[in-house]
């Protein structure tokens, strides 16, 4: 190697960076101890920002474009070096490329359940996960507050810290939303919109902008899910359950009528069945009384009571009911009429 080649290799003439990893946020230009030639060419591509740093202090910042690095167009770096004369001289600075593109499909999720206050269940432990997007909007702040002297920062390191922030603020945001866990799925978009400003407050300290925040799922404790499944099953059955119970009660009374000797031992069961029958017969009357503010029962309700009284008489004749039980139930029915 000749003297000219040695001198040439001591200086950097072309400065650029192409990210082939797709996950790099900060990349320090590998100058290998060489000095930057006065007049060197700097190329900053779209979705990039270049920050020069001289002896630990921030220098000039360059947006996308092509620049010729001279003392005339490097005012901050030149001032830091105290260059008073415009002479062709190499200088030594650190060059940081900051990726300002939007990083998408970043994952967040609760490693442990968080406690949520619920208007229906009071307190519920839930787990949740989703995705979000970010980008760097203040390169100098990001280097100062997050990267420090680290020459290479990946999105995985950034998202790990941001994920911790999201989880710590999630319970606070859900509490402010005031939505029941039963209605969370129908309000994921609205809740995400409410949570976004809460997270952005912390992200601002690092010069990061939260683009989109999505809630993909919220899971409940196993015992709560089982209870909801049972409630759903009962709701699906509707009046079929009452109809089934009435049919079973009718079959039981028919069997007791066919076997008078079992009437005494089944008296208690018959009393329970009759009580249920009276309650079911009284429900339409009670609903009508509530709707009409204490108005008299309709003719249909009176007919039902008379039919019930007739059924009681038949049970007495069959020996299912004693005289005392019959008189007691009859008095109750006549009192309703």
Secondary structure: elements and pairs:
Layout: H1 3-9, E1 11-15, E2 24-28, E3 35-44, E4 48-54, E5 57-62, E6 65-69, H2 75-81, E7 94-99, E8 103-109, E9 114-118, E10 122-136, H3 139-147, E11 152-154, H4 155-177, H5 188-203, E12 208-219, H6 222-237, H7 240-258, H8 267-291, H9 299-317, H10 323-336
Helix pairs in contact: 4-5, 8-9, 9-10
Brief synopsis:
Pfam families: Band_7_1 (PF13421), SHOCT (PF09851). The protein has 337 residues and is of the alpha+beta class.
Question: How would you describe the overall organization of this protein?
Answer:
InterPro entries: Band_7/SPFH_dom_sf (IPR036013), SHOCT (IPR018649), SPFH_YdjI (IPR033880). Residues 28-235 form the SPFH domain. Residues 309-334 form the SHOCT domain. The structure is a single chain. The model is unreliable at 1-8, 262-268 and 293-297 (pLDDT under 50). The protein starts with a helix and ends with a helix. The strands form three sheets. It has a five-stranded antiparallel beta sheet. It is rod-shaped, with a radius of gyration of 40 Å. It is an alpha+beta fold. The chain folds into three domains: 3-99, no CATH class; 103-224, 2-Layer Sandwich (Tetrahydropterin Synthase, Chain A); 239-336, no CATH class. The chain has helices at 3-9, 75-81, 139-147, 155-177, 188-203, 222-237, 240-258, 267-291, 299-317, 323-336, and strands spanning 11-15, 24-28, 35-44, 48-54, 57-62, 65-69, 94-99, 103-109, 114-118, 122-136, 152-154, 208-219. Strand 4 and strand 5 (57-62) form a beta hairpin. Helix 4 packs across helix 5, helix 8 (267-291) packs antiparallel against helix 9 (299-317) and helix 9 (299-317) runs antiparallel to helix 10 (323-336).
